[in-house]
Specification:
The complex is a heterodimer of chains A (about 375) and B (about 525). Chain A is mostly helical and about 375 residues long. In chain A, about 70% of the residues lie in helices and about 5% in strands. Chain A has a two-stranded antiparallel ribbon. In chain A, helix 4 (about 70-95) packs across helix 9, helix 5 (about 100-120) packs antiparallel against helix 6 and helix 13 (about 305-330) packs antiparallel against helix 14. The longest helix of chain A has 30 residues, at about 125-155. Mean pLDDT of chain A is about 85; it is low at about 1-10 and about 365-384. With about 525 residues, chain B is of the alpha/beta class. Chain B is about 30% helix and about 25% strand. Chain B has helices at about 45-50, 75-80, 95-100, 115-125, 140-155, 170-185, 200-205, 230-235, 295-305, 330-335, 350, 360-365, 380-390, 410-420, 440-455, 465-470, 495-500, and strands at about 5-15, 20-30, 30-35, 60-65, 65-70, 80-85, 160-165, 190-195, 210-215, 215-220, 255-265, 270-280, 285-290, 310-315, 325, 340-345, 425-430, 455-460, 475-480, 480-490, 510. Chain B has a 7-stranded mixed sheet, with helices on both faces. In chain B, strands 6-7-8-3-9-10 form a 6-stranded mixed sheet, with helices on both faces. Chain B is globular and about 70 Å long. The model of chain B is unreliable at about 505-513 (pLDDT under 50). The interface of A and B includes residues 11, 21, 231 and 384 of A.
């Protein structure tokens, strides 16, 4: 009897099996189910904690994000900025270079732009100013990204810590220059730069403040899609990301690819800084990037490094953010509550990838335990 | 007579379609040392992992002291007083020996390093180990690390010790010391299972020898009543006729000349020691040896992927007739010289192919640079992918399927298909048929024979001696990084090669058969 028991106990309750492949429609069905499940869980929490009607809250989220023309434009602008930074980090992450320094790269790009606008704004013609702004912002971002890349390539230092530290340097530099260039003097803030002359402000198209930014980011999206999919560089960085051994075997110069890819990644972050400073805010502060350098990593991974999918994932994150803000004001809840809701939704969306890649097999003769799931019936397994 | 300390009955373990262990029966008494002998891939390590609870067998029973026991995890095996010394040590580098030994141990007592250290000293004195419990692991030599592992097992009260190729990393003196410790343990009524390839060690240390071959249990012999020749025969088995077509080499010319090649790994251990040989065009040169005898390093050195400490590799270009030195060149530089060198590495998905890329993208892995634009040219690779799928009968949903989704045999067909497509002058392959079924294996053999007839110099690292003898023209035997023999495959016997594989390089002269 005891031996029998021991035998039964040998097989674990369930084990996880990797799926071979799954039809696309089924994968999307799982994702949809995850969103619905997230909304149900959020609903339960809303009712138990606040006593509000969850549907009213979901409606408020939509209104917050899409309710008015102004809100829609603001959503698009935030989407564009997040997408731009996500596109920038994508080649690095596809190469498995953990660049968590996009925040700093954007800031330093923004600072470079601001410095051009402040120092040269009213002194040179726009034909000189704009190219100089573009070049300096890209160079600054690229410099910030390439320093960790060189150290990684030459001495195999840890890029995660290195890029993170570079963020702090960028923030401190910005604080320093905020003091030097503070406007009004002594405020410690760079106010609106060239408020009267608008020198160095990016052009408005059709009187719309954000349209230019949107077009630039759209162009970068297409560029990045082509670069990753059809260029030799894109192929090389994908091979390096998969396995350095394979890359060496294929005759790829791994060091060169790391440095080159980070130059590109940083340069696009620099452009994001330019768009933020010259296109949208017309000022710069140490929280100009607003955590997007980190959110971008999630956008990029969720979209599996596909620039086109990244439009969707960044839309999702921006929508959640906008909706959450609206909830907290409308229902006079504090920010934390709406962040909890966003957190739940993102958790479900990321978590469902597990069920797309793996399936759970339960033990054949499941005991009347929590394992009594329908799946346990169809399992073939060995039963001796 | 009391029950054996540990007994296995009809243990079977399969991985997919591969049978790693089939109906294995073993018995070890108290105070006995059992050697497990077998070629690579004969299932020794799998079996030990089953005893240690890392794998769970599909069938069969394990008895400890005559009682049937279920071992689900290493924790269970600890409870049954089984200790395992892995080939690759499982120690925390920055901790001291004593910290490593008590790490993760739950004996109900409070963490008391001082008390533990005393206990460790006591164990060391009892068996004659020489280690400093306070020394950090990263400051230790390989042999000291191994000692720590053994003390760790003893500290936890292990009565049954499993050692997976413990001598592979030791010098002869260190081996002697290890063996004297093992003998002392035997006197203390411990049971020891030791895995080794080296016949002379089997003879000197063990009481009984169990032989495995291709996952099957061949038999157990009493060491005193057997000899090295009999064991080799049991290990390699009777010669099986495979009927591989072998043509005579046509107009062989020196293609690759390796002289005095020496490579060290990162720890400064010599992986290749003064290796010299010549590979001729129109010939298949087989390379035999126990796993880790330097085969991988040899091929990678020629391919430009391995740092070379000494020696020369010369390539005679058949087009120009100019000899080229390959040492110190990267794979790209080698290719730029016009050397059409194809290489099928052992690690198919970790080196030869990119698992997440589809067939087309994998076809261009070594040729993607073609074309002057910065864009990829996918037409040629796509055609090649289709051709390989058709010619080699690759089972795949399509050419845009990621390679990792294919089965092992099909993955290998893709890799070999690509490497052959460039009409190489040198074709190197490491274990190209490992894990493949009979049909796929023969397809690969035929492809290699075809390349040989086209005049390529083929270097074939294999583990199945029957195949090497029937497929190759010559066979180079490596043992611990040194050449122990070069034999003519048409006249060589398995026993002859088996003995060369197990031979100590220091003692032996170069055998030429």
């Amino acid at each position: 009897m005891s031996a029998d028991k021991a035998k039964k106990a040998h097989e674990p309750l369930f084990h996880v099996v990797k799926r071979n492949s799954m039809p696309l429609w089924k994968a999307w069905l799982i994702r949809l189910a995850a969103v619905l499940a997230a909304l149900v869980v959020c609903g339960i929490i809303i009712v138990t904690v606040t006593g509000e009607n969850p549907f009213a809250m979901y409606k408020t989220m939509f209104v917050g994000a899409f309710g008015t023309t102004r809100r829609r434009w603001s959503l698009l602008q935030d989407l564009a900025m997040l997408l731009c930074i996500s596109l920038a980090v994508t080649p690095a992450f596809k190469m498995k270079f953990w660049n968590i320094g996009a925040e700093g790269q954007v800031l330093i790009g923004g600072l470079a732009t601001a410095s051009c606008m402040i120092l040269m704004g009213d002194k040179v013609s726009p034909y000189v100013l704009y190219p100089v702004m573009i070049i300096t912002s890209m160079l600054a971002g690229a410099l910030w990204a390439v320093i960790p890349a060189i150290f990684k390539a030459k001495w195999n230092t840890n890029e995660t810590l290195f890029t993170l530290m570079m963020n702090y340097i960028a923030i401190q530099l910005l604080s320093y220059f905020s003091f030097i260039w503070s406007n009004p003097k002594g405020s410690g803030k760079i106010g609106i730069i060239n408020a009267s002359s608008h020198a160095g402000w990016l052009p408005q198209i059709g009187g719309n403040k954000y349209l230019f930014n949107l077009l630039v980011v759209l162009a970068i999206t297409i560029f990045m899609y082509v670069y990753l999919k059809y260029s030799k560089h894109g192929y090389e960085l994908a091979v390096v990301g998969e396995s350095e051994n394979t890359a060496r075997y294929a005759g790829i110069n791994v060091k060169k690819v790391i440095i080159r890819t980070m130059l590109l990644s940083g340069a696009i972050c620099g452009i994001a800084g330019l768009l933020l400073v010259a296109g949208a805010n017309h000022t710069v502060s140490s929280n100009a990037a607003d955590g997007r350098g980190f959110t971008a990593i999630m956008v990029s991974w969720l979209a599996k490094f596909n620039p086109i999918f990244m439009i969707l994932t960044s839309l999702l994150l921006v929508f959640l953010d906008k909706g959450a803000t609206e909830i907290s004001t409308t229902f006079s809840l504090n920010d934390s509550f709406s962040e909890i809701l966003s957190g739940i939704i993102i958790f479900f969306i990321i978590g469902c990838e597990f069920f797309i890649n793996y399936k759970i097999k339960f033990r054949e003769k499941a005991k009347p335990a929590p394992a009594a799931e329908p799946q346990s019936v169809e399992k073939e397994g060995e039963g001796s | 007579m009391s029950a054996p300390a540990i007994e296995l009955r009809n243990i079977t373990k399969t991985f997919g379609s591969i049978v790693a262990n089939k109906d294995i029966c073993l018995k070890v008494n108290r105070g006995e040392i059992l050697s497990i002998l077998g070629e690579n891939g004969s299932g020794k390590t799998t079996l030990m992992n089953i005893i240690y609870g890392i794998y769970y067998p599909d069938h069969g029973q394990i008895f400890i002291d005559g009682k049937e026991t279920v071992i689900r995890s290493p924790k269970d095996s600890y409870e049954h007083k089984i200790g395992m010394i892995h080939q690759h040590f499982k120690l925390v580098d920055v901790f001291s020996a004593a910290e490593n030994i008590i790490l993760g141990m739950d004996d109900g007592e409070r963490y008391n390093l001082k008390k533990s250290t005393e206990k460790i000293r006591a164990i060391c004195n009892e068996y004659g180990f020489k280690i400093d419990p306070n020394k950090k692991i990263y400051e230790m030599s390989v042999s000291e690390k191994q000692t720590v592992e053994i003390v760790k097992a003893l500290y936890r009260g292990a009565d049954i010790l499993i050692l997976d190729e413990p001598t592979a990393v030791l010098t002869p003196q260190e081996t002697d010391r290890l063996f004297s410790v093992l003998r002392k343990m035997k006197e203390n009524d411990k049971s020891i299972i030791i895995i080794t390839h080296k016949l002379h060690e089997v003879m000197s240390i063990s009481d009984k020898v169990a032989v495995l071959r291709k996952g099957e249990y061949v038999g157990t012999l009493v060491t005193k009543e057997t000899n090295e020749t009999e064991l080799t025969e049991m290990m390699v088995g009777k010669k099986i006729s495979l009927d591989i077509d072998r043509s005579d080499p046509v107009d062989p010319k020196e293609r690759i000349i390796v002289e005095g090649l020496t490579c060290e790994n990162q720890e400064g251990v010599k992986m290749l020691d003064n290796v010299s040989f010549t590979a001729y065009s129109g010939e298949i040169l087989g390379i035999a040896g126990i796993a880790g005898s330097g085969q991988k390093e040899l091929l990678e050195a020629i391919a430009g992927l391995q740092k070379i400490n000494a020696g020369k590799i010369t390539y005679n270009n058949p087009k120009t007739g100019v000899p080229e030195e390959l040492r110190g060149k990267t794979p790209r530089q080698i290719r730029d010289l016009g050397v059409r060198l194809s290489f099928v590495p052992e690690d198919r998905l970790g080196m030869g192919l990119v698992g997440n890329m589809d067939l087309t993208d994998n076809m261009m892995l070594r040729s993607y640079k073609k074309g002057k634009t910065m864009f990829l040219e996918r037409n040629e690779p796509r055609k090649l992918a289709k051709k390989v799928v058709d010619d080699l009968e690759v089972v795949t949903p399509g050419i845009s399927t990621p390679v990792r989704r294919l089965s092992g045999g099909n993955v290998q067909k893709i890799l070999v298909g690509r490497e052959i497509a460039s009409s190489p002058t040198v074709l190197m392959a490491a274990y190209p048929v490992r894990g493949l079924d009979i049909n796929s294996s023969f397809l690969i053999y035929n492809l290699f024979s075809e390349q040989k007839e086209k005049g390529a110099a083929v270097l074939f690292v294999g583990e199945d001696l029957d195949v090497l003898i029937e497929l190759c023209d010559k066979i180079l035997v490596l043992s611990s990084g040194s050449v122990t023999g070069l034999v003519d495959a048409r006249t060589a016997t398995k026993e002859q090669i088996g003995l060369l594989m197990a031979k100590n390089a220091e003692g032996g002269e170069r055998n030429v058969g």
